[in-house]
What we know:
The complex is a heterodimer.
Chain A: H1 7-23, H2 26-33, H3 41-49, H4 68-80, H5 87-101, H6 104-115, E1 121-124, E2 140-144, E3 147-158, E4 165-172, E5 178-184, E6 190-195, E7 203-213, H7 226-261, E8 263-264, E9 267-268, H8 273-301, H9 307-332, H10 334-337, H11 343-355, H12 361-370
Parallel strand pairs in A: 1-4, 2-4
Antiparallel strand pairs in A: 2-3, 3-7, 4-5, 6-7, 8-9
Helix pairs in contact in A: 1-4, 4-7, 5-6, 5-7, 7-8, 7-9, 7-11, 8-9, 9-11, 9-12
Chain B: H1 7-23, H2 26-34, H3 41-52, H4 71-83, H5 90-103, H6 106-117, E1 123-126, E2 142-146, E3 149-157, E4 167-173, E5 184-190, E6 196-202, E7 208-220, E8 224-225, H7 231-244, H8 250-265, E9 267-268, E10 271-272, H9 277-305, H10 311-336, H11 354-367, H12 372-383
Parallel strand pairs in B: 1-4
Antiparallel strand pairs in B: 2-3, 3-7, 4-5, 5-8, 6-7, 9-10
Helix pairs in contact in B: 1-4, 5-6, 5-7, 8-9, 8-10, 9-10, 10-11, 10-12
Amino acid sequence: xxxxxxxxxxQAAEAARRFLARECPATLVRRVREGxxxxxxxxxxxxxxxxxxxxxxxxxxxxxxxxxxTLGAVIEELGRACDPTxxxxxxxxxxxxxxDAGSEAQKQxxxxxxxxxxxxxxxxxxxxxxxPDPEQVATRLEAAGSSYRLSGRKLFVERAAGAxxxxxxxxxxxxxxxxxxxVPAQEPGVELVRLQSxxxxxxxxxxxxxxxxxxxxILGEGADAMPHLRRALxxxxxxxxxxxxxxxxxxxxxxxxxxxxxxQFGRPIGSFxxxxxxxxxxxxxxxxxxxxxxxxxxELHLGRAADEKVAIARCASSETFVRSCFTAHQIFGGVxxxxxxxLHLWTRKAKEIExxxxxxxxxxxxxxxxx
Amino acid sequence: MDFRFxxxxxxxxxxxxxxxxxxxxxxxxxxxxxxAHTPGPxxxxxxxxxxxxxxxxxxxxxxxxxxxxxxxxxxxxxxxxDLRDIxxxxxxxxxxxxxxxxxxxxxxxxxxxxxxxxxxxxxxxGYTEPGAGSxxxxxxxxAERDRDDYVITGQKxxxxxxxxxxxxxxxxxxxxGLPRHKGLSVFIFPLDSPGITVRPLYxxxxxxxxEVFLDHxxxxxxxxxxxxxxxxxxxxxxxxxxxxxxxxYARLRxxxxxxxxxxRKLSRNGRTLLEDPVVQDRLVGLHIAIExxxxxxxxxxxxxxxxQVPTAEAxxxxxxxxxxxxxxxxxxxxxxxxxGQLESGSPHAPMEGRLVxxxxxxxxxxxxxxxxxxxxxIIAQRGLGLPRA
Lengths: 371, 389
Ligand SMILES: Cc1cc2nc3c(=O)[nH]c(=O)nc-3n(C[C@H](O)[C@H](O)[C@H](O)COP(=O)(O)OP(=O)(O)OC[C@H]3O[C@@H](n4cnc5c(N)ncnc54)[C@H](O)[C@@H]3O)c2cc1C
């Protein structure tokens, strides 16, 4: 057993922390949340220059073939920094799907550009307002001669307005099988409607009205894409757990600093037992959430059937992040509630992560079937 | 034992409902929903109407022009207001005015009480300072005697309502020579007095609050409530009146009912959300918790009506209500699925985004108005008689 990063992974984490401390201050997080700008171009380019956007891809597609733990370490740091980028959606989910399900030509075409930060892809998966289940797909892909037509409606698509491509899940009319279709976001027939979420600043409804699709836009060779999607969702879930662990760790640190600094009744509020107990509980949560996240990530790393560990990590770390923010607000009191204070950026992020990619509910269901 | 309201109390509720149904227009409710807790012209009008019809004095003794109603009857009234999201003017009526009756001079009573009763005065609370939150007695805003006046200099923070209120109820240090609790006094004076600057503070919960800077603000000695250096006692009296109204259940019950209605309407995977056993179990848990809170609210009001002070009950009410507010919002969103995160005005937003609003406001409920840690201290020490740490 070894519960620490190896030297290389530790260096990646360290470098990421330094880079983000410089390039991703809370002021940037705040501006992107407020939509000024909606996409942090300079940060994204910087992340591209660091090689992060190509970490999971094979070398022949311009990638680094990074191990899962290294990827997790970088993502944990992104969570700490409350990063306002589409890293997980674009690189992990969509990039992962292209690499996993795409044909050789498609990988050659999309992955290097994605890895250089020139291509933004958003996953368009969910369709039902109340249901996070990715199998509830009514979007139809219908053959029309040698090409296809795509119609349907997607919800909760992240940053659709800034994306170049939408990776749309659809049912092929003839077979009823799942297909993954890359659709340019500005294509005729694609309409974007903004949704207002307190958690995610840039969510959209995507309406697809008889969009023309050619075979080259459909990932893979026409086999059922459900296993690919499941695998991508699993990797995404494990890495979201790392982001949540990083975020909650940071919130714990901010809260500890405040508890040491803030004086009431002539002593630091951190000296009150009630405050200490709250912080002790947060620490316990955070510590176990982080361990759960990396256990899940190492299972992926070893190529094992990671269903159970991933589900546990996904749920534990998200709950921890939200709960640690609730406690942070309690210990910060009035100053932490101000719009100008940074804490609520993490509080909203905690919910963003909880709900990302179908949210934790999905994984609780999954876990129930594994009991 | 009888846990029911009397027929007279039920009748009162019907009368209040009829009055509110008639006068709380859709326009008023829309104004309230979008006004970031700042009363607009319609809300002001409505407050005056409440005054005219005698409702503002519902709990005041008849000698001050009130209806002299019991606490249970007041609870019925405020619950009905709460159900319609009307929350302006409450504290001025239920806490500050009651404190004035108890501690103010005859002249102060004559000056303030009739105008409060007519809904003409709104008074904001100037307690908290940057260095003095839970530890209010450490505040440093100074009020110095100068012949017949006091000259006040300092800074208040989180002074909610200071941008629209007519007056401020302010705690300041009048004698720095005395021990911390002893050298404080309460003043009440108009917010347009020279030397006052109000700056907005915006919050994550949409509610706006303020910083108030006081630079040599000159107020007459007659602005002081009670004897010099008795301010901590005055504030304690006001807080005791305030706490009874702090943890309320009506709005939680309403949001819960709306959530249930939503679950009956929305479906997932071929059945309504309400048919999902996981959802049912979560809802049942919330239901029970809200009932506990309701019972505690009844107990507090009932105790007051018997001439007792519901110290532990009122604090427990505040703790339960605030933590339940957060739980209801968070679990409610989970129940509704991904659309739970959508705010009012967004396509697909369930319950007009009300759970989102509650979620964003909930942290404040837990630490505002005396933090839940302090409330638990009160339950343990004043309620259970345990020794102080
Ligand atoms: C939106 C908003 C509106 C407000 N409106 C008003 C208003 O109109 N007028 C007004 O005067 N104030 C107002 N307040 C201030 C509010 O009452 C204070 O925030 C509250 O009293 C807590 O004080 P604090 O924020 O300084 O937190 P602190 O007192 O610094 O407390 C921080 C943490 O330390 C804990 N702590 C402190 N002392 C102890 C102890 N002895 N034992 C255990 N734990 C302890 C607290 O429980 C809390 O968890 C408002 C605040 C907000 C955010």
